[in-house]
Design goal:
single chain, Pyrimidine Nucleoside Phosphorylase, Chain A, domain 2, two-stranded parallel ribbon, 7 strands, 48% helix, transferase, glycosyltransferase, metal-binding, amino-acid biosynthesis
Length: 324
Amino acid sequence: MTLPDATYPLSAEEADAAFAAILDGRADDAAVRDFLLTMSLRDETAVEIAAAVRAIRARMRPVSAPANAIDVCGTGGDMANSLNVSTAVALVVAACGVPVAKHGNRAASSQAGGADTLEALGLNLTRAAETAEATLVDLGIAFLFAQSHHPALVRLAPVRRSIQRRTIFNLTGPACNPAGVSRQLIGVARPDFLAVYADALTLLGHTDVMLVAGDEPLDELSIAGPSTFLRPGQAATRITPETAGLPRHPLTAIRGGDAAYNARALSALLDGLRSPYRDAVLLNAAAALLLAHAAANWHSAVHTAAHALDSGAAKTLLTRWLAY
């Protein structure tokens, strides 16, 4: 199939047909590369993002999840190379009693993605994919490894790597959770893109979502300074660490490394180490707990998340998960 010229925004019909062809292998790699690069250079529209998400969802391997399950996931691409905040947040929030269907992948723009770090901690990614529905029910957590649930995207990996910049498929990841969760804390690497992403989610029928972006830019709430959070259909709101009763730390204080390095940092966090990493995790876990209606305000949400760490509940959860 010949892909449409992506120099200008596509209609919903054009975008639907183009992404179906790309994911079904009916367009050659050179054409796909040019299409994705051209779209990325001019910035994707809400209509195009929604079309790509619909195409991916139609081809994914779904799993069942409790009705109150949430996801905490970012688009990546902020180039901050920070420690794995959303992965730690998933453990903390699940330890607070909120089921978390964590969607994630290996690193694309950092040294270690959530999958890499969990694997370094001892999680068998293949086994985790096979037992995801069971662990969500029994433990309240699952890791939905993108490569296991989105086979249509696997063949595109070489093309995406050849482009050497983020494409629309970086943006679609959080909205393509295989568990179909309705509540999501989504980090977007570009604060100026929050409104476009919110419009895409509205087109997809998402309502119970919180989009966040640090000013640096960062695809999570920043522990270093102001961030923006936005719910579809509502006005954007500004937040700082002080809003939640937390101190600021420079981003260099949560700089990550390879999978082994990040796994050691996560283990130390679960062992109770007080650190800038802990504060970054508490801030973002608080947002997830507010989204899940498990806390009344930022301060109480931080207190709840801190108790999950200090009581050993989050560490116990990881131990049980690794042994499942």
